[in-house]
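From the shared-data thread, chain only:
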Amino acid sequence: MRTSTRWTVVVMAVVVALGVALWRQLDSDETAGPPRQAQAREHRDADTAEALAEPRARAALAPCPADGQGEGPPKLVGITVECAGDGSEVDVARALAGRAVVLNLWAYWCAPCAEELPAMAEYQRRVGPAATVVTVHQDENETAALLRLAELGVHLPTLQDGRRLIAAALQVPNVMPATVVLRRDGSVSKILPRSFASADEIAAAVDAEIGVPR
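Structure, as tokens:
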């Protein structure tokens, strides 16, 4: 083979290699993740204060916890979400500080969640001030959440967390429903990625973890 021919082959091979590398880089950029506007949001644009007023009235949710004593669960420091009941801003760590808390993570479209929520409400009624049950709605459709709670007759305080910041901070498995038990000192006692059929089941799994007398 002549020298000129050899160089032609080498140059063509280099050009092809560069083309393949460029194609792979472009393909990687396109599939690395969704565009910024497609990321999860706290709630939909349609869920304005005016649009949520009637669903909030129907749901009649209990107020979200106010600032407790201390700094709260360390893993939740810096996380701020919306209180679904009235639209106020909640500093999650400070709100839960000094409380024994049962966090119930759910979404309006989750059938097992709908079956479990009334049991959570009954558990709160039984346990009284010994523990605080707070539900965390993990979908941006806040209107649907309020209507589902109204339909179920569940009036527990609810945090609207369409971005799932709380679950991410607590390293909760990506399943729903899931329950996180927090001790009064803010430490995580248990993460329960399962559903409960009754208040009795919840009590059996939770009471000993937070010192509720049986």
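Residues 3-33 form one domain.
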